[in-house]
Model the fold of this input.
Amino acid sequence: MTRDEALRLVHAYVDGELDPAKALELEAHFAEDPTVRAAHERVREMSAAIRAKADYHAAPPAFAARLAAAVPPSLAKGGRRFALPAWLRQGAAFAAVAVIGWFAATLWGLPTDDRPAAEVLDAHVRATLSGHRFDVASSDQHTVKPWLSARLPYSPPVADLSVEGFVLTGGRLDYVGSRRVAVLAYQRRQHLIDVFVWPSTAKLGEPRITRDGFNIERFTRGGMEFWLVSDLNRNELGDLARLLAERAAP
Done:
């Protein structure tokens, strides 16, 4: 099992969805690989926080059957195994917002180009629900940037945009595409904004995406790829994207 495969299986392990042999194989990675071990601890803590803070609602008796029946035929034909999460098998459903990312990324098997959008949205929702929006809390870019740079193989650009009405509240590490990335946490009035940043020169598709009530802006600048996620209105989120692109310009 490679590191990438191990990282992809962490969520299934935490949910108790792996067979015993695969679980033992993954546990060996926890003991040997600090990156995989850290990912497991983060997902385990996040899962516990979401279960503690999210609202629960009784699921209708036929809900699980309807959900299983909705699996696209392409998944079944491709031999991809589909397992309902443990919480659904037990007859309870998380608040709808907690399901958005999992439903989009896992159930529907998004095209490759759409997977980052589902992953950053999922990460934003998890962080918001769990209350863990940053690992380092600070409005000072000279505090946030060194903290992130010391824990990543790159130095993400961090901008103080409080004068423009976008307050930097801190930064954290998260996982997108099985790799560790920087997340800058901003706030505008009562709206929370996550800015995911990682090295890339890829050409991105449509710069603006709306999904499940959230707005997403994406662009590349200065050798970095930026993904902004928030429930903030489209125009203001676009203003933040423009400001960040200006600051990141080489």
Confidence is low (pLDDT under 50) at residues 78-82, 87-112.
